[in-house]
Amino acid sequence: MHPIPIADPGRFHLILTAEGEPRMHGWWDDLAVANCKFRSWVGEYGSLPGAHIVLVDKEEGEALASWPEEAG
Q1: 50-65 as b/e: b if 16+ CB within 10 A
Q2: How far, CA to CA in Å, does 16 sit from each of 2, 9, 20, 52?
Q3: Could you tell me if 14 and 37 are in contact, meaning their C-beta atoms sit under 8 angstroms apart?
Q4: Per-residue model confidence as pLDDT tens digits over 6-65
Q5: For residue 59, what are the domain limits?
Q6: 47 inside domain
Q7: DSSP labels for 6-49?
């Protein structure tokens, strides 16, 4: 029996935390899809107490979008 290979999860990682606890995450290879999911999650889960949603490009190692936006 051969082990089932685990596919690369994708370049763009979307993470939802609420009240400091991880709640949900997802991976996509397509930036347009990841951005659409980001906006969707803000609409669906942004009202959770202490919600924070971030979209990260794992290849570049940087956040592409964050909600709520960080004051700068």
Answers
A1: ebbbbbbeeeeeeebb
A2: 34, 17, 10, 6
A3: yes
A4: 667 899 999 999 999 999 999 999 999 999 999 999 999 999 999 999 999 999 999 999
A5: 12-67
A6: yes
A7: PPP--SEEEEEEETTEEEEEEEES-HHHHHHHHHHHHHHHTTST
